[in-house]
Amino acid sequence: MEKQQLKDLTLEEMQKWVESLGEKKFRAQQIFRRIYEGAISFEEMTELPKELRSRLDGCAEIGSVRQIRRQISEKDGTRKYLFQVRGGAAVESVFMKYRYGNTACLSSQAGCRMGCAFCASGADGLQRNLTAGEIVDQMISMSRDAQERIGHIVVMGTGEPFDNYDELIRAIRILHDQNGPDISLRNITVSTCGLLPKILSFARDMPQVSLAVSLHAADDEKRRILMPVASSYSMAELLNVCRQYTEMTRRRITFEYALIDGVNDAEEDARKLSVRLKGMLCHVNLIPLNRVRESGFAGTTRKKAEKFAEILQKYRIPVTIRRELGSDISAACGQLRLQEKEESKDR
Question: Catalytic residue at 105?
Answer without folding.
Answer: no
